[in-house]
């Protein structure tokens, strides 16, 4: 008989869930605010997630500090970001991002981060999509990891305990729906842990790995989204996912915009060049290459680039389900100009791009949606629950301007850290947390006990990833989405009915699968509801943008054990800008 029980209880003022840039910033800010902090990270510290592994030729953090062009100001960063998502994102969050990220850049400099500098000592800043002026700051080509390492040193200097390989899977609330703790499992020792805390910060990344191919590490499967959803937090903008091309073997290497300026030739497994099959005669193929950025968008001629890849992946796939990439003869000089870092990474993986064919496929990179936060402090409708980074929803809509992702992590990590620390000082846990946790464990134990079927959990997880990749990638239509949802519902029904063989050793994997199904369903039914095409969301059966009906966010929420679709309209500007009087 299965009887999972609590092995260890840890009390802390603030529990930070996650190990990326937002989580690290939140932990540092909370401990500096005087709170006792604990960090639970599902993988090894500095060994998993998006921040630790992110790479592209353009990877940087955006801040309107005016070092490249003194005309750049936070107000312009605000307008640029709002223009990219107006009608889909919260202007108050956007203003917090744009107005505060210069201070967070200074924080990073103060703790020893050496941004690339000009000869005059000012920071090097680059252009990114949706930016009026150059505003992205970088560190030696791998900005994200450098930020994380710098923050990590400060966290360790402050003596913050980090619980590695610890997957938080259920949030505990009291009778008034306030956070009182969290349940977690050490995925290596199988030890079950109860954190007693009045403040939890979910900063545990996105859900790229509900797809067959994705960047980041395999544990990014939507735990934060699912845990928030189970407490009634809306999941918003989930249909908007950044997807684009990458070299897929021997491991994923994202191929960003500069790579395509070198005009690699893409062929299917029959040796046929793919673009001429799908690019209309009135479209210049050279312009398709020129317009190509990461991720996929319907908004330029580069539309034909990614859709051609998906069609040929499906029709004549390479051994691992992609297309073949080869460099044009005599491209050495342009490669050195445009993609030196990518070339170096591929070379380190054993691929000589001037001699070898390499497999290219579409991969999931970033979730633009997330669990809805109500204020710039990352507050949710559940008191004591704060959300930051890619787990948070309301700041990213159809498009996400380059450099904003790392900026979000620093701004909202800092804000949630301070807010969670303040909350913990004002709220002590008076209810019986152990009893509430045991009540949550009881149905999970019953579920494992009755799961004595013969279906294989790992096979089901892979089938979900394959299903999402086949039916909810960039080419979407009613038939594909219906097939995706049908498969998800079948897996969900089988899991709940005990048709899988589960035991205590597979407990954490089974919980992950539950969370993957919630997240995947939220993506699919949001994509079904949006009967138009916009930016990274392409409906083949509704190919036009519909501004009349669809400048609004879709969100899903749990009501009576069902996932319900609703919509939300956002204001055009933040409140104080709307109330300004211009004389």
Automatic annotation (TrEMBL):
Domain Fumarate reductase/succinate dehydrogenase flavoprotein-like C-terminal per the UniProt entry, residue ranges: 463-562
GO molecular function, one term: steroid dehydrogenase activity, acting on the CH-CH group of donors
Organism field: Jeotgalibacillus soli
Annotated protein name in UniProt: Succinate dehydrogenase
Source organism, top-level taxon: Bacteria
Lineage start: Bacteria, Bacillati, Bacillota, Bacilli, Bacillales
Pfam families recorded: FAD_binding_2, Succ_DH_flav_C
Record's keyword terms, sorted: Flavoprotein, Oxidoreductase
InterPro entries according to UniProt: FAD-dep_OxRdtase_2_FAD-bd, FAD/NAD-bd_sf, Fum_R/Succ_DH_flav-like_C_sf, Fum_Rdtase/Succ_DH_flav-like_C, SdhA/FrdA/AprA, Succ_DH/fumarate_Rdtase_cat_sf
Keyword Chaperone among record annotations: no
Domain FAD-dependent oxidoreductase 2 FAD-binding: 13-406
Tagged with keyword Ribosomal protein: no
